[in-house]
Thiamine kinase-like enzyme (Evansella vedderi), 266 residues
Amino acid sequence: MMHFMGEEWEIFPAGGATGDAYVAQQGEQKIFIKRNSSPFLAVLSAEEIVPKLLWTKRLENGDVITAQKWVNGRELKSPEMQQTRVAKLLSKIHSSNELLHMFMRMGNNPLAPQDLFEGLLARLSMQNIKEPNIKLAVEWLRNNVHQISSENLVVCHGDVNHNNWIVSDGNLYLIDWDGAIVADPALDLAPLLYLYIPKSKWQDWLLEYGLVLTASLQSRLHWYMVAQCIESILWHWQRYESNEMLKWSEILNNLLQEKQFHSTQG
C-alpha cells in the first residue's frame, strides 16, 4: 500500500474486521483507502449514502483500491438511532432502484428466508454450542419460515449497528457495505428496531421510514431477529467473546418468551 501511494503519504490501519482499510495522510490532507471495497461504492457515493468517492484504481494483481473523502465525524450513539434521520436514510437506501439494479446486474441472488435458515443450520452443524435456547429457536424458525415472505426485495446493508452510522457536519452516512445483500427490508429493520427503538415507538419510527406496522411485518421482524440472535451467538462463539455471547443469548431468551412466539410455534 505504501508503494502504491508513494513515499510522501503516511499510511495507518483504519481498523475493521478485514484489515483492508487504511487512512492515508499527506500534510493536512487525509483520505480513506480500502482494498476491494463494495463494487457499488460509486452508486452509494452518488446518492450521498457514504462519504464521497474520490477515485478507484485497479492494481496489477487484480485488487481494486478506492479512495474516499475523509470526514471528521463520529459514530451515532445508541439513543440517536431513534432519530428521524436514521429512518429517512435507511428508507432512501431500501428505496434505491439504482442500487438494487446494479446489485442484481452483478449476479447477486436475493437471500430468501429458507436460504438464510439453511445457512444457519449448516453453520450450527459445524459447531458445538451448548446454548439451551438455540434448539428451541431453530425449531421455531423452521416451523415459521414458509410464512415469512415479502414481495418487496431491496438492497439491505446487513449490519445496521450504531457503529456503522457516521454523522459529520450535519450529514449522516451508513458505512461498511461489505455484507450487503438483496433481501426483505425486515432483515435490516429487525435488529435496528429490537436493539435501539422502544416498542412503544416502533409505529412512529416506521411511519417516518415509510411503513405501517402490520401483523405481517411484526411476524417478519420477529423471525429475522431470532435468526440474527443465532447468527450473532455463532459469530462471538468463534471469537471466544463470552460476554457478547451472553448478551445475545439474553436477547434470544426474551424473544422466545414473547407472546407472538408462543402463539405461532408449531
Q: What stands out?
A: DSSP finds eleven helices and ten strands in the chain. The radius of gyration is 20 Å. The mean pLDDT is 89.
